[in-house]
């Protein structure tokens, strides 16, 4: 007797065939056609969860983020136990700027399927964008535990390490990424260069930026960071050329004046507008060029930050000084202030405007210092919003140790959010009455600060605008620098070609202020000994 025939394998359903065709279109980069095919399918099968999901993924590929989120949300409603639906819903929500719903979607996906490395990676990216760096680190590490050979996971961990100021670990993560499948990652060369630069490894940093520019010649970030590394290396003329790339950065657009950009040529019948940019310290450093500029034009207008207007108007009476936000007078050509070093071909051996080039108002009085002590103005913190403020400002322990230095009467000229730290530090250091005098409440603008500095024996400050003010006034100033300093302070020197009255005290390791304070204490002790031996020598 013959064996019964085996039933034939049923053919794929029309729905399955349509989904496979749509997926093939999507994988071929034809997302719009995939969307159209899914739309036709769903008109006949409106309850098909896979159809809604694939339609949403195709919409996501086409950057139709709202439609993607709506379609995938429908798939989730129809099939609430499918983890990948939640993952892709989170991706669509994240792309549309809906961070909290995206995080909930990722976390729900991981509850359903904890071994989804890509979901953990996406969650890490979301947490980085929310500045939740510790949580992001945990998400990346859990993704790497599941898939330790994924190069893009290591590359994003390297980017996170850079934000965490863990620069050795940044370089290690990128090195692993380069050896993984999919590596190397030339788009990471700028971040690699920044890590080297913050470790003061300037040749390695420059090599990274140059590799980045070989691959991406118009990469504004690579040009900008190369400029900073060149300037920090003392290669000023090369650095000034690259510095002009700052206008291509997303957060530094040019002003958009109708008047043409000045190129440095004499204009005997024209009025030039110079406009300040970046920080207060930058303005104070580069107004030294005003006399040189004024000699080449008929009239000069300077637009500056409001706290500097009175000081700069007093210091440069031949210049029309206008505070930012006020109406500008008529002008014919314009230039940003920090382009002047390039226009005047400034090198370390040819820095114009020897201090003092600022004029402080006379007649400001301050309480006299304790007998036998130096009168020292003090600033311990900069603007907390500054990109490097966490490294450049003193922490509470270092501030207390500094305030305890013997033989000094400190006069606080600290302004802003950190001024309130003084009372706590004084209490913690158990200082005697009169050891520190708080002048901050009396200061209205930089003209007031300048008048106070002129009455001091010295100024002690971290790298903030007061450092530039003291240097420009030619008041002796001791500047406390982080391990990786701003470009203008160069490396491995205790003096500054910009400010002859400055003495630089540098961290020996990142975050290590103790050695800086000890060196400063010895320095001030020697100066006090000289002052004691020669009364009146340091009085101002």
UniProtKB/TrEMBL annotation:
This is Tetratricopeptide (TPR) repeat protein. It holds the Pfam family TPR_8. SMART domains: TPR. The lineage of its organism: Bacteria, Pseudomonadati, Pseudomonadota, Alphaproteobacteria, Rhodospirillales. PROSITE patterns: TPR (PS50005). The keyword Phosphoprotein does not apply. InterPro entries: TMTC_O-mannosyl-trnsfr (IPR052943), TPR-like_helical_dom_sf (IPR011990), TPR_rpt (IPR019734). Keywords: TPR repeat. It comes from the Bacteria. TPR repeats lie at residues 83-116, 117-150, 186-219.
């Amino acid at each position: 007797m013959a064996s019964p025939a085996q039933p034939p394998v049923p053919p794929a359903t029309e729905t399955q065939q349509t989904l496979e065709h749509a997926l093939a279109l999507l994988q071929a980069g034809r997302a719009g056609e995939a969307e159209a095919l899914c739309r036709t399918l769903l008109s006949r099968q409106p309850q098909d969860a896979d159809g809604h999901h694939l339609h949403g993924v195709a919409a996501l590929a086409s950057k139709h983020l709202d439609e993607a989120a709506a379609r995938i949300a429908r798939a989730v409603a129809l099939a609430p136990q499918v983890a990948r639906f939640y993952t892709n819903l989170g991706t669509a929500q994240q792309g549309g700027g809906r961070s909290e719903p995206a995080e909930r979607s990722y976390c729900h996906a991981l509850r359903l399927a904890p071994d989804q490395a890509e979901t953990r990676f996406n969650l890490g990216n979301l947490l980085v964008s929310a500045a939740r760096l510790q949580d992001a680190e945990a998400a990346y590490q859990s993704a790497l535990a599941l898939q330790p050979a994924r190069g893009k996971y290591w590359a994003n961990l390297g980017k996170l390490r850079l934000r965490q100021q863990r620069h050795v670990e940044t370089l290690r993560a990128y090195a692993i990424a380069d050896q993984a499948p999919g590596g190397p990652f030339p788009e990471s060369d700028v971040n690699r260069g920044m890590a080297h630069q913050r470790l003061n490894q300037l040749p390695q940093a420059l090599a990274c930026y140059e590799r980045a520019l070989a691959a991406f010649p118009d990469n504004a970030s690579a040009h900008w960071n190369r400029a900073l590394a060149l300037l920090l290396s003392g290669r000023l003329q090369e650095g000034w050329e690259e510095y002009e790339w700052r206008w291509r950065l997303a957060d530094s657009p040019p002003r958009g004046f109708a008047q043409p950009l000045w190129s440095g040529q004499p204009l005997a019948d024209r009025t030039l507008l110079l406009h300040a940019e970046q920080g207060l310290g930058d303005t104070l450093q580069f107004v030294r060029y005003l006399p040189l500029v004024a000699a080449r034009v008929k009239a000069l207008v300077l637009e500056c930050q409001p706290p500097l207007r009175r000081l700069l108007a007093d210091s440069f009476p031949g210049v029309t000084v206008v505070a930012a936000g006020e109406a500008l007078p008529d002008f014919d050509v314009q230039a940003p202030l920090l382009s002047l070093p390039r226009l005047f071909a400034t090198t370390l051996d040819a820095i114009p405007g020897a201090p003092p080039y600022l004029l402080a108002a006379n007649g400001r009085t301050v309480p006299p210092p304790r007998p036998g002590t130096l009168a020292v103005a003090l600033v311990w913190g900069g603007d907390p919003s500054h990109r490097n403020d966490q490294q450049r400002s003193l922490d509470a322990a270092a501030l207390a140790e500094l305030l305890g230095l013997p033989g000094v009467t400190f006069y606080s000229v600290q302004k802003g959010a950190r001024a309130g730290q003084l009372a706590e530090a004084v209490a913690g250091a158990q200082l005697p009455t009169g050891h520190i005098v708080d002048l901050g409440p009396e200061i209205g603008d930089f003209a007031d600060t300048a008048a106070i500095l002129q009455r001091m024996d010295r100024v002690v400050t971290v790298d903030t605008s007061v450092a530039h003010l003291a240097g420009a006034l030619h008041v002796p100033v001791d500047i406390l620098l982080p391990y990786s300093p701003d470009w203008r302070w160069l490396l491995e020197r205790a003096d500054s070609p910009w400010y002859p009255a400055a003495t630089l005290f540098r961290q020996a390791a990142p975050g290590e202020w103790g050695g800086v304070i000890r060196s400063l204490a010895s320095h001030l002790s020697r100066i006090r000994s000289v002052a004691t031996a020669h009364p009146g020598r340091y009085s101002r």
